[in-house]
Specification:
- Homodimer.
- Its EC number is 1.1.1.1.
- Belongs to the zinc-containing alcohol dehydrogenase family. Class-III subfamily.
- This protein is of the alpha/beta class.
- The chain has two domains: about 15-175 and about 345-375, Medium-chain alcohol dehydrogenases, catalytic domain (Quinone Oxidoreductase, Chain A, domain 1); about 180-320, NAD(P)-binding Rossmann-like Domain (Rossmann fold, 3-Layer(aba) Sandwich), CATH 3.40.50.720.
- About 25% of the residues lie in helices and about 25% in strands.
- It has eleven helices and 17 strands.
- It has helices spanning about 55-60, 105-110, 170-175, 180-190, 205-215, 235-240, 255-260, 275-285, 310-315, 330-340, 360-365, and strands at about 15-20, 30-35, 40-50, 70-80, 90-95, 135, 140, 155, 160-165, 200, 220-225, 245, 270, 290-295, 315-320, 350-355, 375.
- Helix 6 (about 235-240) links the parallel strand 11 and strand 12 (about 245).
- It is globular, with a radius of gyration of 21 Å.
């Protein structure tokens, strides 16, 4: 790898990145050119990045290529663009797929963690000028979620990064930039789980188990995990799941099983799979009157949700959740502190550690359901 930069005027960096050239095909290690940060942007040396299910969903189905995926990451600021005052070279940061400008209507509201300026970016470009900061042999390479962490260096808007303590281990806390934070926040911020309540979680991946951890810490009396992979049960118990249901083992719809064993339905239900049909199932698993369903998964197909109006007439609620309701800049440092104080589990989600060149193996492990989080370690 060669690099050339100065504090005052950063230059183009040439480094390694794993580029997706077409849907569902192995990523290819390429020499990429990474442009200097533009105004209000920072360039980050990625230290660790973990593979999230959403990366796989997009890699299998989205049409924007060539592309550098990855959004759950930690790194060190290499250089800053004009107008950046929050960060300096050497700062430790988490990247975030949805930003916080702190000045728009949503950022100023306590009711939302959406940002009208730095919201979810779906077109593969930067928020600021709708361009890309990557190229291979002069050909533009597109971003993913305005992060693109499957690269030794990346450029992000300064509003899509969070400064963290240099004492926090970057190879662990990268998980807090998406999946673990999303699950904890869904339990605490979105559902606001109450002590003694009963909870069902559909899908026991990282997000589902983070919901379980959040429910356990709130004092839920029963946490049912629903998954077709029985190998997940032992791990799920570590995060607070008390009962395990495999829909394939029943001759009746799983929501009927849940309503029967719960005496009429659960207080809270979480859909963590990314299946809109399962959203309906989760809603039907809740009790009348106050049952709350939270959907967190990103569907690969059939994005429309269908449900009978009677569910809502009976007092049930369906809520969506993006990043667990956390305002990233305002709230993530406190989550990192909770981890450092051993108030939340993060390490236990990491089932594999792999070098950067083995990133396709990580994709295979997740597609086969053999890992929770695989942390990819960048070269020194």
């Amino acid at each position: 790898m060669s690099s050339s930069s100065s504090i005052d005027q950063p230059n183009v960096i040439t480094c390694k990145a794993m580029v997706a050239w077409e849907a569902g095909k192995d990523l290819v290690m390429e020499e990429v050119e990474v442009s200097p940060p533009q105004p209000l942007e920072i360039r980050v040396k990625v230290i660790c990045t973990s593979l999230c299910r959403t990366d796989i969903t997009a890699w299998e189905s989205q049409a924007i290529f060539p592309r550098i995926f990855g959004h759950e990451a930690s790194g060190i600021v290499e250089s800053v663009g004009e107008g950046v005052t929050e960060f300096v070279k050497g700062d430790h940061v988490l990247t975030v797929f949805t930003g916080e400008c702190k000045t728009c209507k949503h950022c100023e509201s306590k009711k939302s963690n959406m940002c009208q300026v730095l919201g979810l970016e779906r077109r593969g470009v930067m928020h600021s000028n709708q361009g890309t900061r990557f190229s291979v042999k002069g050909k533009p390479v597109y971003h993913y979620c305005a992060v693109s962490s499957f690269s030794e260096y990346t450029v992000v808007h300064s509003g899509c990064a969070v400064k963290v303590s240099p004492q926090a281990p970057l190879e662990k806390i990268c998980l807090l930039s998406c999946g673990v934070a999303a699950g904890l926040g869904a339990a605490w911020n979105v559902a606001d789980i109450s002590e003694g309540s009963i909870v069902v979680i559909f899908g026991l991946g990282t997000v589902g188990l983070a919901v379980a951890q959040g429910a356990k810490l709130r004092g839920a009396s029963q946490i049912i995990g629903v998954d077709i992979n029985p190998e997940k049960y032992e791990k799920a118990k570590c995060f607070g799941v008390t009962d395990f249901l495999n829909p394939n083992e029943y001759n009746e719809p799983i929501q009927q099983v849940i309503k029967r064993i719960s005496g009429g339905g659960m207080d809270y239900s979480f859909e963590c799979i990314g299946n809109t049909g399962m959203v309906t199932t989760a809603l039907q698993s809740c009790c009348d009157g106050w049952g709350l369903t939270v959907t967190l998964g990103v569907p690969k197909t059939n994005p429309e949700i269908a449900s009978h109006y009677s569910a809502f007439l009976s007092g049930k609620t369906l809520k969506g959740s993006l990043f667990g309701g956390w305002k990233p800049k305002s709230d993530l440092p406190s989550l990192v502190n909770k981890y450092m104080n051993r108030e939340i589990q993060v390490d236990e989600f990491i089932t594999h550690n792999l070098p950067f060149e083995d990133i396709n193996k990580a994709f295979t492990l997740m597609r086969e359901g053999k890992c929770l989080r695989c942390v990819i370690h960048m070269p020194n």
